[in-house]
């Protein structure tokens, strides 16, 4: 949780909302029946206090406090609810706006896998950016453009569907396992093989996905571990992504070159969670294949379960 985050407490405690600010936000929320009715899908694992703290935290980064903080947090909650409504996120797990063929293509094209829990119980997700085939990614984005919603490419909607699965299903299970709410995620971004051919992946997919998650799931990133970093990250991905991140979020980014990848990963997760791509035994499972019962028949188990040879 935000309140227990060592990085936050060590460097950004001045952004932590007071109990009074959280209570004021709760009062304003209860006075807005429409927004209060939408909170079912905004609140993670039924913990309204933790959710309001995250939105108040986001508001305080704008330099407001007291009642102004509560009012700004309510605006952010309303923005989140409106975005969810426009993108159809409340029903995206069961009734997505895009066809099954696009979903299957997303699973086959974007290597996004789940690898268990980090040392503090955080869900661990790996995106192998260099593992995406530029040609296949281009086809996915072109097909996704046809099914865009509110100017958001359906390929990004597929990513958000995985996020919904993560926060609605995986986080509750993980929280029950460790005995407390774990609503913050460790994201590993592997840059091995990234080159200029991945420009569309960076600009039309990853950067757009990051922009949406800031609105929809504020302050849910524990760390971003960028591994196998080389010139491609410094010149292609990081300048794009950095502009979208608050200084607090920028500080969560840990960059490691190939020689220190294993060392850096083991600072945040146990050896049992170490992905097979980095010498571990955890093959992971594609985030899209964690959806039940709606798993595309066209996607077989070999695609869902990533291996060293993929």
Automatic annotation (TrEMBL):
- Taxonomic lineage of the native organism: Eukaryota, Sar, Alveolata, Dinophyceae, Suessiales
| Pfam families to which the protein is assigned, alphabetical | CRAL_TRIO (PF00650)
Top-rank taxon: Eukaryota
* Signal sequence region: none
Name the gene that codes for it.
SFH7
**SMART domains assigned:** SEC14 (SM00516)
SUPFAM superfamilies per record = CRAL/TRIO domain (SSF52087)
Q: What is this protein called?
A: Phosphatidylinositol/phosphatidylcholine transfer protein SFH7
